[in-house]
Amino acid sequence: MTRALILLLAGTAVLAGCTVGPDYRPRTATELGVPDAWSVTAAPTREDLTRWWDRFNDPTLGRLVEQAAANNTDVAQAVGRLRQAREALVQSRATLFPTLSGSGGYQRNENLRGGGRSFTLPDGTVVDTGGGGANNFSVGLSASYQVGIFGEVRRTVEASRAQVEASGYDYAAVLLSVQSETARNYVLARGLQAQIANARASLGLQDDNLEIAGFRVQAGLVSSLDSEQARAQRAQTAATIPSLEQQLNAALSRIGVLTGQAPGALKAELAPVRPIPIGPAAIGVGIPADALRQRPDVRAAERTLAAATAQIGVAKARLYPALAISGNINTNAASLSGIGEAITGSLFAGLTQAIFNGGRLRSQVRAQEAAADVALAAYKGTVLLALEDIENAIVALQTARAREREFAVALDAANNSAVLSRSQYRSGLTDFTTLNQQEAALLNARNGLTQARADAAAAQVALFVAIGGGWDASTVPEAPPRVAAPGTNPAPVPVSTTPPSGEMR
Predict the structure, then answer these.
(1) What radius of gyration, in Å, describes the C-alpha atoms of the chain?
(2) Residue 495 falls inside a structural domain
(3) Structural domain containing residue 396
(4) Are 190 and 64 a contacting pair, CB within 8 Å?
(5) Does any domain span residue 367?
(6) Buried b vs exposed e over 177-192: b needs ≥16 C-beta within 10 Å?
(7) Distance separating alpha carbons of residues 487 and 74, to the nearest angstrom
């Protein structure tokens, strides 16, 4: 039997070298429609943006981003999905090995009549103890092995491994999204604080204007129209503050939830007014192909395509014979010392082949091929959307900075005009309508400059994330500790993912 087992295993090892289905081939940048250069002006040299939030030189922003990365509930869900994918890979790999099971037993047989001793009970009843008994000890070992002759097991493992990597990249994509959303709401909150301060500063000036108009009305220099215009302008400015405060409350609440806390947890801490964070003057984007390799969503789509390709092989293998091997070894003895004296065993190998199934198996192959086509189209679509995100963020940053420069000029001119108009109105050289228009222009210029600065900071955040900043793209993210301490950033474990030259991965 041992020789037969050796010959059988050798034969199956030779057959197991046959793996059906297409081997996965990474697509090149040309096949995916990736251009050699951007259609907009961008810095050609790429920078290390793993911790892009440090580029703003705002400790509060950095702390909030890292706290969100550690405690956000969406990130925790992505970690759970990654752990599930890793366990699925462990289960797939287990099918590469035989299944072994052992058994043991003890049985006592008693002969209750004849040949034994007897004794009399107090009531006179005679009880026969039987003619003795026999012990039986048994030990067994059984094994079974599903041989993937045509590679169905190896293709399943290949698909599971790709899904693990895709889940890792999905986790990184969620992480980047949470970091971006936290930073964006922080910038929004600081911008709203600045707009509220602008409105309150204008209220102070408008209070003075209302007082001056009242004096001039009392002196008979002007009609009550001036004081009514001053009162209406002040009320309109004051009416904008509650709306801004409501938006500020929403942004602060959102930051609290993003960091895994109650909506009001950070309101007291972030209540003091701080300036809008200012990022670096230039951001190195690099060429399109390099930027896309940093995008976790692009890499997740590529790994999903690899898994779908492997599933074609799994489906095709079902068209061919399947080999199963099973065997067992047993021994029985009357005493423990006799175990092993007599051993029996059996070995069975069986082939199964689908003969007629109404075309179901071939339909499954075609369905998997269609799924691979869908995954390829999704991969290409993700690449194109990533290119769109990057170019839109580049243009948004450029236009926000251009607006910031122009609003700075407008603010200087509006401030000078307002000062002159206020002086002339006091001297009676101009009417209140002119002063009112100049004060409104001053507030608009202040808010315009504030909004442009906030838009520039938000565009920088969007660009950092669009080009894959916030994680180490040379690694496949692993699940961080189940309970992460606040302020920590889960570190991925390196796994080689370097693509061949000229290929997108």
Answers:
(1) 38
(2) no
(3) 2-101+134-466
(4) no
(5) yes
(6) bbbbbbbbbbbbbbbb
(7) 17
pLDDT tens track for 281-316:
888 888 898 888 889 999 999 999 999 999 999 899
Local structure of 318: helix, strand or coil: coil
Report CA-CA distances (Å) from 50 to 180, 390, 464, 472, 476.
Answer: 13, 17, 9, 6, 14
- Could you tell me the CA-to-CA distances from 148 to 13, 359, 392 in Å, in that order? 10, 22, 49
Query: Which backbone phi and psi does 467 adopt, to 5 degrees?
Result: -95, 15
Reported as a single tens digit per residue, the pLDDT across 446-461 is 999 999 999 999 999 9
Beta carbons of 316 and 365 less than 8 angstroms apart: yes
Domain count, the chain: 1
CATH number, position 340: 1.20.1600.10
Please choose, from the candidates 59, 100, 143, 87, the residue with its C-alpha nearest in 3D space to the C-alpha of residue 325: 143
Q: CA 414, CA 443: separation in Å to the nearest integer?
A: 9
46 lies in some domain: yes
68 and 490 Cβ atoms separated by less than 8 Å = no
Instruction: Concatenate the DSSP letters of all residues of 451-470 into one string.
Output: HHHHHHHHHHHHHHHHTTTT
Residue appearing with tokens 């930073």: 183
Residue 388 lies in a domain: yes
